[in-house]
Design goal:
The structure is a single chain. By secondary structure, the protein is of the alpha+beta class. It folds into 2 domains: 30 residues; 192 residues, Immunoglobulin-like (Sandwich), CATH 2.60.40. 19% of the residues lie in helices and 30% in strands. It has 4 helices and 14 strands. Strands 1, 4, 5, 7, 8, 11 and 12 form a 7-stranded mixed sheet that branches. The protein has a 5-stranded antiparallel sheet with strand order 9-10-6-13-14, with no helix packed on it. Helix 2 packs antiparallel against helix 4. The two termini are 19 Å apart.
Length: 267
């Protein structure tokens, strides 16, 4: 690319620089969709998705992450709610859907699941339920072609929705859910912050790709749907410094200037 840039005449380079500069100005006010680095539960993920920055539902602000690790014949999904001290069931994760390339027709199953359950009382105090094998019995997986849906809204009174950390930023019981209204205890128990699912999906390989991720929040099927984004690669060491669109445009402007300087030097 440098060779091509050095051969461009001055007028052409100036013509390129003007729209790039305009892009930098126009994008400067656009907030980056990246609001935080992925949670620690996503450290081993090969594909990361999250709700866009500033997302809200009928219940309030939400931030969720879906962290996939693709394996031969399936995948592991960590579904994480990082919105702290939520006030409404509309901020709890109740379902996720996505497409995974290579998946064959139908027949996806949940091989295993893990998650800490808690019962939340009026006033926000909560008790952690003793752990058990495959405790997430409200969650059901379905498949149509390459489309996978995982939901806690499979019938009856919704329960085991995924709630974010408590007021202390964890799930150890040192904090509480002081902001919680009556809609949250109605759907006890909640999954505390993280639910992990191992899905068996025929045809999936480590080279498969995840697309079209949609998060759902709340207890009403079909409501509070938020399309996920995959803005960055799964490398937490670089996430905090990913440039905003305006920065990228200014870098491009700098490259254009380098090409113009080389052109003048050779002339």
């Amino acid at each position: 690319m440098q060779t091509r840039a050095s051969m461009l005449p001055r007028n052409t380079l100036l013509g390129l620089m003007v729209p790039i500069a305009a892009l930098a100005v126009g994008e400067a006010a656009v907030a980056s969709p990246i609001t935080s680095v992925p949670p620690a539960q996503c450290a081993a993920a090969t594909s990361l998705w999250s709700t866009p920055g500033g997302s809200t539902t009928s219940g309030g602000a939400v931030e969720a992450w879906a962290c996939f690790n693709l394996t031969p014949g399936g995948l592991t999904l960590n579904l994480v709610n990082v919105q702290p001290n939520v006030k409404s069931v509309g901020q709890e994760i109740s379902a996720i859907s996505f497409h995974v390339s290579g998946a064959q027709s139908t027949g996806a199953t949940i091989g295993s699941d893990t998650g800490s359950l808690g019962t939340i009382a009026a006033g926000g105090s909560y008790n952690i339920v003793p752990s058990a094998a495959n405790p997430l019995t409200s969650w059901v997986v379905s498949q149509s072609g390459t489309g996978i849906s995982l939901s806690a809204l499979s019938g009856g009174q919704p329960a085991q929705l995924i709630i974010g950390p408590d007021s202390a930023g964890g799930i150890s019981g040192s904090g509480n859910y002081s902001s919680a209204n009556g809609s949250i205890p109605q759907h006890n128990p909640s999954v505390l912050e993280l639910a992990t699912f191992v899905l068996n999906i025929a045809g999936v390989t480590p080279d498969s790709t995840i697309t079209d991720v949609v998060f759902q929040f709340g207890s009403a099927p079909g409501a509070n749907l938020i399309e996920g984004i995959d803005p960055v690669p799964p490398d937490t060491s670089v996430l905090a410094s990913v440039p905003a669109p305006a920065t990228i445009a200014l870098v491009a402007l700098g490259f254009a200037g380098i090409g113009f300087r080389r052109n003048r030097t050779r002339a």
